[in-house]
Design a protein that fits this description.
15 strands, 4-stranded antiparallel β-sheet, 52% strand, elongated, OB fold (Dihydrolipoamide Acetyltransferase, E2P)
């Protein structure tokens, strides 16, 4: 089976390319982010000005147009076909102490609704204050520490629903 890549442009247009089609593309890399392409005797200048290699999201300027591009490889396509999602499998429910220290402040209590990035508590470790934030939107299920408590590394601090 040929390797295929599914490409979505601006969330509106979908294309499928084989590895052979990509390798046959007449493209020359001018520097790290600039390319020159020839397609059906037409010349194109492409600049990659934003890239998220891990998630395969790119913003590309071709001639004077800007395009948001998402590339799915074979593994991404298989995960989609199976109805799975890597993001949902990694939901964080337990906030644990990243290092031993002293709890200086607890900003939430059981039942508090939090948004991703909201302050949960302040942990002093090695004479530095570390603010722990919510990893996702949710509701605080329980708070296992209070101001003045000493905690060990990996000790459960807050549990989320």
């Amino acid at each position: 089976m040929d390797k295929t890549y599914k490409v979505s442009v601006n969330g509106q247009f979908d294309f499928t390319f084989t590895k052979e089609e990509i390798e046959a593309l007449d493209a020359r890399q001018l520097n790290k982010t600039h390319f020159h392409l020839l397609q059906k005797n037409r010349s194109f200048k492409a600049d990659i000005f934003k890239s998220d290699f891990l998630h395969r999201h790119y913003e590309i300027k071709i001639n004077s147009g800007i395009y948001r591009v998402k590339i799915n490889n074979e593994l991404d396509q298989l995960i989609d076909e199976m109805g799975l999602s890597l993001g949902s499998a990694q939901q964080i429910n337990d906030i644990k102490a990243p290092m031993p220290g002293l709890i200086l402040e607890v900003s939430v209590e059981e039942g508090t609704e939090v948004k991703e990035g909201d302050y949960l508590l302040v942990l002093e470790a090695m004479k530095m204050e570390n603010t722990l934030t919510a990893p996702r939107d949710g509701v605080v299920k329980s708070v296992s520490v209070s101001k003045g408590d000493t905690v060990d590394k990996n000790q459960l601090l807050i549990e989320m629903e």
